[in-house]
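Below: protein 1.
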Amino acid sequence: MTSAWINRETQRYPVAVLAGLAGALAHPTPGWAGLAWIAPAILWFGACGLRGPEGFRYGYVAGLVHFLVLLRWMRHIPFPVGAYTGWVALSAYCALFPALWIRLGLQITQGGSQPVDPSADHPLTDRRTGSWHDWLFGARAYARQPWPLRASQLLTLALGWVALEYLRSHLLSGFPWAPLGVSQWRQLPLIQLASVTGVYGVSFLVCWSSLALGGAFLSMGLRPESRWNWTAEARLPLLVTLMVMGWGFWEVMGYRRLERQANPETVRLGLVQPSVPQTLQWDPDEQGRTFTKIESLSRQALALEPEVLIWPEGAFGLTDTNYARMVALLGKNGPDWILGADDSVTREGGSGDRPAVARYNAAFLRRADGSMPPAYWKRRLVPFGEYVPLARWLPFLKWITPIGDGFESGDRPWTFRLTGGATVAPVICFEDVFPHGIRDHVRPEVDFILGLTNDGWFAESAAQWQHTASAVFRSVENGVALVRVCNNGLTGWWDACGTPRDVLGDSTGQVYAPGILLATVPIGLPHTETPYHRHGDVFAQGSLALVAWRLLRSLRRQSIGSEPGTPQG
């Protein structure tokens, strides 16, 4: 049994590893986006001939490789034991989703069973001949099906990919990091689809096209007698992709024409990127030097006469004394000032489980006249980074993290009305990777989303690029510009089509270094609500419902077919 298992499954693992690597490397860095168009095909067609449980294990190997490579930046968290434990544990959890994709796909397309070689007298014992023998049976079984059935299967598989990405975004507080569509963040015409379907629509189109091309090559190789039959596989996805690209190009050009014709007002933003390592932010002995660094950069930014000075999320030595120094530096008629800092609120009824002081990760606005509207409190907290899950029932968990009691989450989105008239929607840290979360922040009067983040936890790694790639989709989905102010990259702004307009250090590649950027952002542009902002994740939810229906139908057929006395075809 062990020998047969090794023959059947481990021979497939190099293919699983290849699929996992291709999917991971499609995301930044290095960001070889073309690999995203082949990774799903390698993963799925590499599973030809496997049974359901075997397919799950094969898919899990691919998923584990994918997420270990994709999330490698977690190793830089300045707590080595926790960093490596979290990296492996999160990768192991996320790997369940590609495994489920293969398992459910086999169930829906094959009823969870192994295709049988019609020439084999004893198909079960014949499986000892090896995994590639089984693969050939499965691939031939696929290629010999009528085109409508093959097309239906591939379409269902692509919808299944979307359904599982949607579930990963919501289950256990959600982790929507780097879905397949995000790898295309630089393909502006293509990603305009997100304004209708969200990022999930881009994932669907890439996955569907990949599977169709893979199926076409498979049909071409295994059915050479059908000279043109293989082209049927790719016609519909190719046509849809071309239509989406053409429409997206028209949308991008239309936005740029609108911007030129509207001749909008602008707001000058002084963006400060201090690039302070996370360990220094926590060190009391470094507070003075840390503040001196960000104060010096702020002076340089103020020399450019911005209307708003903006700091990123993080602790930069802003004591009461240093706050007074900054207020003096800004002057009586100086710019507005937006910054990220902790906020504490005393409440009644404190207890062991409910401290008397509630702490929030917050964004503050100090207007030029010295007034301060209510702060925005971060709504979506990082598990084990800002709060300890299940701490009420498992209090010992507080002792293995550096955050103590942690933060509490805010209960509402918020907007800041700037002195110059612009309205901004602040979000903090990784809130801008959640598609369904940002919709609540974008109200009709909002001119741009403002992301304050501190990716200094991850040194100079791929995290900054992957985070930015996801955040850019929030601007496309909601039809507003995006401004990001980061501790160590990427600081800049993107327009409503996801076009990078001005990014600190991007032209030189030194996005992690300290610096300042004067960003001139248009405000008051005519705003048309996008379908995604109006309806949300209808496409992803519909995909989930359709795949669940197909799965239930497959299970019902399998159950009926297994009843005694049922004819077996």
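Below: protein 2.
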Amino acid sequence: MLYSLYIKNFALIQELTVEFSPQLTIITGETGAGKSILVGALSLVLGERASSDLVRSGTNKAVIEAVLNHVDTEKIDTLLSAANIEPVPELIIRRELSSSGQSRCFINDTPCTAALLKQVGELLIDLHGQHEHQLLLRADTHETLLDEYGGTNPEVNAYRVSRSKLQNLQQQLNQLKKEAAEIRNKKEILDFQLNELSALDLKSDEEESNETEITLLENAETLFTLSTALNDLLYNSEHSVYSSISTALHTLEKLAGIDKRFAMHLEETRTAKNIVDELARFSRSYSADIDFNPVRLDSLRERQLLLQRMAKKYGRSLPELIALCNELESRVALEENLEEEVERMEQNITSQKTELSLHAAELSSKRQVAARRLELVIQGHLALLGIPNATFIVSMSREAVSDGDICMEGKSFAALPNGCDRIEFLISANPGEKPKPLVKVASGGEISRVMLAMKSALAESAKLPILIFDEIDTGISGRVAEAVGKSLKSLSRLHQIIAITHLPQIAAMADLHLQVQKSVQDERTVTEVTILDHESRLQAIAQLISGNNISSSSLHHAAELVAGAAN
């Protein structure tokens, strides 16, 4: 519930704190006293757009802070946790607005965005300003209201999931057909490119290996001369390294036989002899294997030139040419397998359409049941609210199309975002008149009562714990006003209600009565809010009855209204 609202330097308000009843709080006051300023302040702290014009003249900053307790909705906890704000039972939301137009927002003293404030506020408070009930005139809100009343949101969600799957399959099929069409249009080019690249028989490391072999073939004579010379130096010449190291080893063995200190060098000398012998044999074998092959060299050079031309032609490196070849093979294979793939996709789409149609039929059936119940409930509430002969109709229609995604009762219908039904509320306030859309027939007073009837019907299923009505009494008076007051009173047993009114019949229903007054202090206009006790409350209600000239009869009437409300 909304426990308190603190306002400082906002419009005509210098500083005040307002506490609210957990049930029905009524706010009254003369026109222009600043009643709607309270609603404006609350809208601001709930994340609505701010303007520096709202900062009280002569001050630097406006502050609005709302304290809400017993806040335990799972969605709010999720939002706060995502913003690194610890969820607690008591929620403190604050908005600061500077005279320069800058705005700062806080939840539980943690900075946050106005968007987050708005998200949290929308889960807690249903605020109906003087013109907010005009939302009822928009047919696109009627579907949501019916689903809330009928409890069909699980069916709506199942339908949405199924529709999303169908749309994904359709997109995949369209993309598949698009790609295949592009392949068909470019088939000659693709075939030529694929044949050209396939004929090259490309290998990923070919360029490097070719360069290595070209280098060897180009230098074959030099390699032969050098390797032969190395073999002569190591082994074949008269004073070869191998011969010299063998003589040295023989001498070292004799020395070691006399002086053991030479023995430690014997193994190293033997190893050196083996190394020389191995190197001599390698150079001998290497020179024998050298390939003097000018034909092979020319072939490799031509291959390298061909690879370079292909790389330049396609603007790709050798690895990229190999990837392109694989891609072309896949695209050509796609075209070849298109008919089979399209048939498979179309079968999946047909199955998904069947599933979607089942979800749509189940949702539509439950909506129809809920619609009939809602019609009776709304008509009953409207009768209590002074429209006894009202006819309220929940119109449900479907858009028949030649190739729709939903098939029901042998007909094809469009798959709308939330089902196959178009829902609109129709009303006739007078006998004999055909029900028409609310926007065409309802007066301001009737719309206010339809909205209150709707809220009363949705009271048990509504998730918003706090309802705020700014001048719901538009266009009504007398007995109807009393009925509206009783309806608010009844609604406040399920929700916290805060209502601004000019009518004594509604004011008399209050569990807490606040009066807004405007005065001049230090040559400045100031708006103040006072909690009325029993006597001052009777005075305020009497003033609503007879104006500023309060009479004994108006006081008596006020007392009767309050006593009647208590009963």
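The radius of gyration is 45 Å.
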